[in-house]
């Protein structure tokens, strides 16, 4: 189990770095001379793709590809956000509310890390999260690329989200949101 957990954590780190690198060209013009970046305080709801390339090692633990609906509400005057996502496949979905700490990296982008809980709709059926309800650790990046348009990417580590298995899951989500 320790080996699986180490692999999952390494995967989350790699995915987070790759996500940041994928969005970096979009942010290139925003690295203006500024002593302290302000990040983005955009609240948004967006849609995108979700994938979990791993499985829990048992029947019903299959790797999955699906979609994600994701949103953010930035708590005013704090580095905290309340986020929610729904990861889904054609079989089921998982609702994942999270609380994150946001760190500005440019004047229009943030890195974030947080904790939450995945509430699985149909226990035993695979989603891009797993096949049962479980705690979640998330890390990601978001950038406001135009007025009211936000791109986001994150990785969610599900802690034991499979029935009859102690394996963890890693889901990767990318999408575009509209600010409100």
Notes on the protein architecture:
This protein is mainly beta and 180 residues long. Helices cover 14% and strands 49% of the residues. It contains one helix and eight strands. The protein has an eight-stranded antiparallel β-barrel with strand order 1-2-3-4-5-6-7-8. A hairpin with a 2-residue loop joins strand 6 and strand 7. The N and C termini lie far apart (43 Å). Residues 26-34 have low confidence and may be disordered.
Question: Could you outline the blueprint of secondary structure elements for this entry?
Answer:
Blueprint: H1 2-27, E1 44-52, E2 64-74, E3 80-88, E4 93-106, E5 109-120, E6 134-146, E7 149-158, E8 169-179
Antiparallel strand pairs: 1-2, 1-8, 2-3, 3-4, 4-5, 5-6, 6-7, 7-8
Features:
180 residues; mainly beta; eight-stranded antiparallel β-barrel
Largest sheet: 8 strands, antiparallel, barrel
- Given as residue ranges, the uncertain stretches (5+ residues, pLDDT < 50) are 26-34
Mean pLDDT: 84
Discrete helix count: 1
**Spatial sequence of strands, sheet with the most strands:** 1-2-3-4-5-6-7-8
* 3D shape: elongated
Radius of gyration: 16 Å
Give me the strand/helix succession: HEEEEEEEE
- Beta content: over 45%
- State the distance separating the first and last CA atoms: 43 Å
Structural classification:
mainly beta
In short:
The protein is mainly beta and 180 residues long. It is 14% helix and 49% strand. It has one helix at 2-27, and strands at 44-52, 64-74, 80-88, 93-106, 109-120, 134-146, 149-158, 169-179.
